[in-house]
Amino acid sequence: MAAERHSRRPAERVAPWRRARRVVLLAAAICLLPAAVSWVRTMSRPHNVGPGVATVEWVRAHGGNGLVSQIENWYYTLNAPSKGGPPLKSLPRVGVTADVAAKTPARTVAYRPPRIAPLIHPALKGEGVWRPAAAHAGPEPAVLLTTFRSDPEYPQFVAGVAWIDSRRTHLAYVPGLAEPPEISHRGPAEVPTALRRRVVATFNGGFPLETSNAGLVYRGETIAPMVNGIATLVEYRDGRVDIVRWEHGDNPSRHVWFAKQNLPPIVYGGRLNPNLSDGPEWGATVNNAVRVWRSGIGIDGHGNLIYAAANYQTVGSLAEILKRAGAVRALELDINEDWTSFISYRRPGAGEPSNLLPEMFRPSTRYLTPDERDFFAVYLRPGKGWSG
Amino acid sequence: MERVTPRRITPGARARRALLVDAILAAAIAALALSLAAGLGVVGFFALPVLALGLLWIGAERAAAGLRRRRRARA
């Protein structure tokens, strides 16, 4: 009888909304089980980014790229920089000695890039003036660095630019720990110890394959099918590098050693891509007009590479920087502070690594330990070594 | 014809039956979400805050109920 009385008490019945809540929470818990297993598996792999960034990358790699990009768009739009502001009094010092023009002997006939003409007047000391990246680099340093204010409307923005002499250097593509995801020769994901005596610079790669929807060739092997119309940094088996708009179909010729694609070209034939505003061809990423850390690589009329990076850039302003620095063809590389790095090594043996810009978020030793993402390493060619 | 009257069940049995029904429903919803979502990252992104908020809600409810009981006991 007691049980019967008990069962008729309305308080014993679970209210429908409580049951609905219970169903939702149980469903969420069940959903989280496989997600948690996958997340733990990813986090237990070796990585050199913080747990927050690693988690964001996990979401991105597991179907959440559009979601992450949308949140990034909102965040960066809300935190967009304001125009103007007090003028800068000096630029961050890059390189090691006085400008190349002053130090280069008259007998030198090798091509040296001209000074980048300042956009804001009066120019600051050393603005746009190339300096050798390494000490004792001789009269023809293989890597030159400079900084300049790239946008008169935002006089506090400073762009860092590096010029890489293709005659004296060899470019290598280095796969990261997690990017590209499937590859047969992954390697150490850092500058190999045996090659450190010749490394002069390292810089970030492009978007992950999953977000770029573009191709990759490594050691002549197609890792992801190449896509026509996409800007491609390519190195041939004879060591020549180029930036091209890919038009050779899925598979490369046997002359290609590596080819890394990333989005349409932003500079081509010496002109800015007329379609730098947002469109589906730019992939599922932060909108082109959003100001964020961006980087890019271009090639000048003499076949030398030009790398540029700066905070608060749109795709259009990045393209302007590369063009102003002398690039006739260029593509965008990785974006966001977590992925943008250009590191030069001032001494042989990867000694005294130095970020191109002091605000670059990742440490200058980034590529001397295994890194998540793929990157590029610039080595001095044999016989073109440190002269000091 | 003999009429079958509903079997009387204990409150505990009723609660277990309701829990079983809810669990089956939740599993069906979870299976649907996992199959329709673009990936585990998206599922985790939405499921984690839902679970966290729900647990906080239940916790706050229990804390408030405990407070009410103690006040009543004091009165």
Structural write-up:
The complex is a heterodimer of chains A (388) and B (75). Chain A has 388 residues and is of the alpha+beta class. Chain A has one domain. Chain A has six helices and 18 strands. In chain A, a hairpin with a 3-residue loop joins strand 16 and strand 17. The longest helix of chain A is centred in the N-terminal third of the chain and has 29 residues. Chain B is flat. Chain B contains two helices and no strands. In chain B, 81% of the residues lie in helices and 0% in strands. Chain B has two domains: 30 residues; 37 residues. With 75 residues, chain B is mainly α. The longest helix of chain B has 35 residues. The interface between A and B is medium-sized, with 34 and 34 residues.
Produce a short descriptive summary.
The complex is a heterodimer of chains A (388) and B (75). Chain A is α+β, with helices and mostly antiparallel strands and 388 residues long.
The overall strand count of chain A is 18
- Ends distance of chain A: 100 Å
Number of individual domains of chain A: 1
What topology, given as strand order, has the largest sheet of chain A? 1-2-3-14-13-15
Key terms for this structure?
heterodimer; A: 388 residues; alpha+beta; five-stranded antiparallel beta sheet; 6 helices; 18 strands; globular; B: 75 residues; mainly alpha; 2 domains; 81% helix
What's the helix and strand layout?
The complex is a heterodimer of chains A (388) and B (75).
Chain A: H1 2-8, H2 16-44, H3 51-78, H4 100-103, E1 131-132, E2 143-149, E3 158-164, E4 169-174, E5 199-204, H5 209-212, E6 216-218, E7 221-224, E8 231-236, E9 241-245, E10 256-261, E11 267-268, E12 271-272, E13 292-299, E14 305-313, H6 315-324, E15 329-335, E16 342-347, E17 351-355, E18 375-380
Chain B: H1 11-36, H2 40-74
